[in-house]
Amino acid sequence: MSVLMRSSPTPGRDERYVQGLKISVEFHTVGSVYRRLQRVDLTWPLCVDQFVSVLSLYDPEGHWPKLKLLVDQLPSGSFVQAIREGIVGELLENFAKLENARKRDDAPAMRWIAWNLAWDVAMISALMNRAYFTSWSRTPDEILRLPSLLPAVKSLVEKFRNGDLRSAKGLHRCCEAAVRGVVQHVATLGVHVQVEPSLAGPPREQIGGGGPGSKR
Predict the structure, then answer these.
(1) How far is residue 51's CA from residue 34's CA, in Å, rounded to a whole number?
(2) What is the rounded (10 degree) CA torsion for 182, 103, 155, 213?
(3) Which residues does residue 25 pair with via DSSP β-bridges, in sequence order?
(4) How far is CA 3 from the centre of its chain?
(5) Which residues, other chains included, contact 56 with Cβ-Cβ below 8 Å and sequence gap of 6+?
(6) 27 contacts 8 by C-beta, under 8 angstroms
(7) Which of 49, 118, 175, 204 is most exposed, with minimal Cβ within 10 Å?
(8) DSSP H helical segments within the chain, as ranges?
């Protein structure tokens, strides 16, 4: 449950168990929620749903529908900037770590880093679609229902969703294909980032086959 307040010296969360059920009440100031929803970044797809998919119990000032309208009317430039920052600040950094782990033949590290990279790809894909997820745990299923999802990203998500992680080298190839696909696709949206030639060009032989829109 979320509570919106005009102001509060101590916004936060109250959690307790009542007759075997966990009850959580989060207190937010109106201004802080408006500012958070306007700040589009890599975590935005997991922050939105709790404020726009609500059953209002008491809202005399009509803030809940205003929040949904705010999200729907966010400028495309906010998403483009968030996509660029997510690629440069997180995705490419994790791919560089994955490459380092591959070069030292560290399979456990490759799997761990690949998980973080897959998460980056999932959030960037959501931003491409102006989409948000209902919860952290439902993300693996909901990302596959995005209106526009790159095939290489779908393959990577399905690898983790199905627990197909035995081949670290195969996982690396899947990650590389997903990163390449994202970088090349966002270039068509006007998001240009400098990457190594292997990511900017066509897929390497061993990989083989395989504008931000609106919410679901």
Answers:
(1) 10
(2) -20
(3) 14
(4) 25
(5) 64
(6) yes
(7) 204
(8) 30-38, 49-52, 63-72, 76-86, 92-103, 107-128, 139-142, 151-161, 168-188, 197-200
Is 49 within 8 Å of 137 (Cβ atoms)? no
For tokens 């693996």, the residue is 140
Radius of gyration of the chain (CA): 20
**CA atoms within 13 A of residue 34's CA, in its CB half-sphere:** 11
Tell me which long-range contacts 168-175 makes (C-beta under 8 A, separation of at least 24).
Answer: 168/102, 168/107, 168/110, 168/111, 169/102, 171/110, 171/111, 171/114, 172/98, 172/102, 172/110, 172/114, 173/206, 173/207, 174/114, 175/95, 175/98, 175/114, 175/117, 175/118
Q: What is the value of pTM for the model shown?
A: 0.83
Tell me the average confidence (pLDDT) per consecutive run of 10 residues in the chain, 216 residues long. Answer: 73 78 82 92 94 84 90 94 93 94 95 95 95 92 93 94 91 94 87 69 38 45
Report the alpha-carbon distance of residue 154 to residue 121 in Å, rounded. 10
